[in-house]
Amino acid sequence: MNVKIDITSNIPFYQQLTQQLLLAIATGNLQHGDQLPSIRDLAGQTSLNLHTVHKSYKELQKKGVITIKPGSKAFLINENATETQNANLSQIAMKLEQIIIEACVLGIGEQQLKQVFQEGVGKYYIED
To answer: Which residues of 24-58 are buried (b: 16+ CB within 10 A; e: fewer)?
Structure first.
């Protein structure tokens, strides 16, 4: 797994790791049923503290993206159930609203914001 942490970033390391793992899922590099590295292995690969990796995995578990099997060193990607998808959709809607408000305050126009959004969506969704 190719994970790079930017030590100069203001974004906490666990959030960077969480985002990179989500990106790996979104791009198909990790798929339903794939086994994630153990916390110890991923900490070694990224030079992160064990607690940092554990916090990232717990975030992914809270989001319903992974499941942690008791007594196992590895974590498995989990398919999202409808309930989890609905909860996640609500969280995403709130985040998008925050972004829209910030863009409005910064004077970014509606068309410009739509273009940025469409470009971002285009990176991860393939039209049928």
So the answer is: bbeeeebeeeeebbbbeebbeebebeeebbbbbbe
- Read off the pLDDT of residues 28-69 as tens digits, 9 standing for 90 and up: 888 888 888 888 899 999 999 999 999 999 999 888 888 887
Packing angle, helices 50-62 and 13-26, rounded to 10: 50
Are 36 and 75 within 8 A, CB to CB? yes
Tell me phi and psi for residue 53, to 5 degrees: -65, -40
Parallel/antiparallel/unpaired status of strands 75-77 and 66-68: antiparallel
The DSSP code sequence of 79-114 is PPPHHHHHHHHHHHHHHHHHHHHHHHHTT--HHHHH
Q: What is the pTM of this model?
A: 0.70
Dihedral angle of Cα 81, 39, 72, 58, to the nearest 10 degrees: -30
Among the listed residues 26, 4, 27, the one whose alpha carbon sits nearest the alpha carbon of residue 92 = 26
